[in-house]
Predict the 3D structure of the following.
Amino acid sequence: MNLRHTIVAVGLAVPLAACGGEPDLAAGNLPAVGRGPEVMTVLRLPREGGAARLYRVPTLEPSAWKLDDKLPPLQRTVGADPDQGFVFLLDKKRNVIALDLETRRLRPSVEQVRHATVGPDGALYAVDTASSVIRLVRRTPVRFRSKLQGSPTELHGTMGGALVARLAGDQPKMEILGSDRPPASFAVPAGRQALSLWGDLVAIAADSAVVIYETEGDSDGDRDRISIPVSGGAKAVMFSPSGHRIYVARASEGLLVIDRMSGQKLLEIDLPGPAIGLSGDLFGQWVLVRPASGDSAWVVDVGRGGFIGTVDVEWDDDLPAVVSPNTLLTRRGTRVVAVDLAAKGFPERGEVDGGAEDTWLPLTWHPPQEEGVPVNADSAALAAAADSAGKGASVYLQVSSSQNPTWAQELSQKLRAAGLPAAVLKPARSDEAYRVVLGPYATREQAEETGRGIGMPSFVVTSQDPPSQ
């Protein structure tokens, strides 16, 4: 597969935290468990053990859901399996346990784990104390034939079942392992990196350039690579949710937006000062830029293409995180608060007093038996459309949404150029997004089957209105 013509959906870089002198791999801030694209709840996990709690977004009202078992003292959250409804946790005895959201029980998973991560398909990857790698898929363990050759500073799973590790050392290296293939190892430049959501691309902010690698390919270490020159000192990099744009935080000259397919500069957004980090959301609406100093985030409205203000946050492994189209979750002192990014002055819409000491995980899930879970107007419109499916509604597969019609049309055109039946569903109201969809399909089953094969995050929607080409 040629890197210049690969269309992928991508996510956020996974940060690291130190533990006992050994790098430990922390969870990212993407939603973890899915029944759709909308974050409905956040899970509160006490680091010293005890009762897990669930809160509704955006009000942070407590849910009636309760875990029947008590959590042990935790090292960190690893990730989640969206199909099985499991949240994976690493306890302080270095064992991975699975929290079953449906049964509200804890299940033992893998013991004596040195490093662990969860891939985009929900598979658990665990590196034990002997550097052996185990991939756990639907509770079935698969042991890799090769061991990890070094101590990872970052660890990611891919949709193809491989493990991508960034290894520490004077010369950084990338190592890629698979259960049925020999490992590939190659040198990479120093700098912060981001992976695509499916793990098939890596972008590295290498000061004077952004360097992009494929992770799929031959095992001889020969990797397709693109280097995009960047001025101003690239400090961090992030893909847009649709994968067609790259954001670059720089020591000077503001936020740079690059077209990933052509490598051309699309936009420069002025910022109050030098930046060192980036965080985004699954909706493509907001980019949070971390300043070089201070406890705050600069908020960039992607639809408007500009910086709109500064919000007080405390940067950590799990927070701040944009957990719904307009809701930012962050710590403030001893509290965890929900902030409205769409309102002037970024007002608080909810809070949990005393929650700052615990770990928080956004979930696109809520207890099926619980009534009164908030649903936004966009989700309600989709539900109404689904109910009318038998009355002439068309079935589509949504792959992206954006407030910017030009961006939506650009992505649609690129998908069509790749041979996919892409189009844009126009919003019914001014506050709704432009949706990039594939289809139409005769049945929901046909749409779901396509979704499993395209290598992009997607979900089925229905509409009475024809899309624009």
Summary: The radius of gyration is 21 Å. The longest helix spans residues 405-417. The CA atoms of residues 55 and 62 lie 4 Å apart.
